[in-house]
Structure formats: structure tokens, C-alpha cells
Amino acid sequence: MTFAEFRERLPDGPVILLPLGSQEEQGPHAPMGDYMLAQEIADRVAKAAGAITAPTLPFGHADFFRCVPGGMQLRATTFTALIEDMVDSFLDHGIDRVLILNGHSSNAPLIDQALRQLRRKHGVAVASIDLWRAIPDALWRELFGENWAAVKGHGAEPLTSVYMHLFPDLMRPDLMRPAHRGKALGLPITGPSGVSFLGQSVYLPINATEVNSDGMLGGDPTRASAEIGNALVDHLVGLCADFAKHLALCNPRVLTESPEKVAK
Fold first, then answer.
1. What confidence tier does 262 reach under pLDDT thresholds 50, 70, 90?
2. In the chain, which ranges are continuous DSSP H helix?
3. H or E stretch at 11
4. pLDDT higher than threshold 70 for residue 256
5. What strands lie across the sheet with 52-53, from one edge to the other?
């Protein structure tokens, strides 16, 4: 949009969508850069809800992926500062209906920190949806059956199916294989946060390639499909568009005020 085109939309109080992602490995079979998925989903949400998509921040925070070449990880302080600066650019002009669509779950704790800081500064509550955690168990079960939990994990589902649906030409299905976790200190690795000892969690700063040589943290991408990706995208676009429409009726400065009252 040109500046003039954007200015013409302001009297309507549009919802601004801010897609976030990361530049990191997604297993040997998928392209690096899950920000592409967040951007495509945000564009579809904008069309469905009459919202406006801001430029996507393609870099995120997850130190345990620094060990994999090709990734570009931000420090925690850099990431939170970027979120504050990007959202500030709208709030400074009274554009206060902002919705973050986060396509990299490790960003979530830092997003919360940044949004709380912004609320203290501006008095505006900015909403955020963690895309991949916004898929309900019922849909997982419908798509994969009772053993649905076994397909989930970094380098597997849901991103593999979503990539197959949105960017099939970038995929390498010949390299798909289930993830197998290694050991650390002779103990089973539960993820990048640590190991299991006598049934209890012990936290260790484990790198992604120590969990799995391909940087896969779990799941089975061989059960993925473009059809499943289509169903997942339809769900996420519908959910986010419905919330964006709801947010358009709300006052993010007074959270106790009902949408009906604002609409009048």
C-alpha cells in the first residue's frame, strides 16, 4: 500500500496483523524460514477479515537452533526490542487494534514480555495468537486418528503438511523420516530443555542437533500431506479471521468493556 492508501483506511479503525516467524531449519525435507507460512496465513486472514497485514518479521529467538548453519537467530533482548519498536510504530499514531500472528512458538514468552511493556507504556493491550498451538486436539484426532500426538514436533507436524499445501515446490519428500531423539549424560532427551531422570525432568541447555542430528525435535513427517495442510490452514485462517473481526469491535484500552458497547 502507498501511504495515501493506508491513510484512507484509518477512519475505519482497521486491525493490523503482524506476522512473526523465524529463519531456522525445519528438518531436512522442508525449507528454512517458517516466516513464509505466517506471512501467507496472515495475508489470507487479512482478506477474510478486512484487516491489513504489516511486513513480516522473518527472524525469531531460539538459541537451541544456533548450532544449525543457515539459521539467523536474534538475541532475546533484540527480539523484544524489535517487537516493541514495530508495534510502537502503530500505537504512536493511535492505531491500537494490533494482532500478532506468531509462527514460531519459541517467540511466545518474549512476545508476552514485550506486550506487557507496551501496555504499561501506551495503555493498550495487544493480542497475539500462537498459530501452531491454536490447532485443537479434536482436529488433530480427526486428521491423524487416535495416535495423533506421535506426528507432532519440530521438523514434522504441523509445519510439514502446511508447507506441502502452501509451498509444495520447495519440499523434499525424499528426505522425510521420523525423528529419533538421542541421549545426554546417558539419559533420554525430552527436548532442547533437558532430560528425563527417574521419571522427572532435569533441565539442561541442549542444542537441537544433540536432540537429533537433523535438528528435528520430534514427530513423524512421513504422515504429512497437502490435504492435511489445507485443513490446518483453513482452520487457522478461520480462527484468526473471526478473532480479528471480534477485535475490530473491541476497545483494546478498556478490556472490561464489551464489544457490543463499543460497536454502538
1. low
2. 3-9, 35-49, 76-91, 108-122, 137-144, 159-166, 208-211, 226-248, 259-263
3. none
4. yes
5. 52-53, 16-20, 98-102, 127-130
Domain of residue 33: give its range: 3-167+225-263
Question: What is the pTM (predicted TM-score) of this model?
Answer: 0.94
**pLDDT over threshold 90, residue 264:** no
Q: Is residue 193 part of a domain?
A: no
Query: Does residue 195 belong to any structural domain of this protein?
Result: no
Tens digits of residue pLDDT in 153-195: 999 999 999 999 999 999 999 999 999 999 999 999 999 999 9
How many angstroms separate the CA atoms of 197 and 219, rounded?
22
Edge-to-edge strand list for the sheet holding 187-191: 183-184, 187-191, 194-197, 200-203
Interatomic CA distance for residues 67 and 230, integer angstroms:
32
Give the CATH number for residue 55.
3.40.50.10310
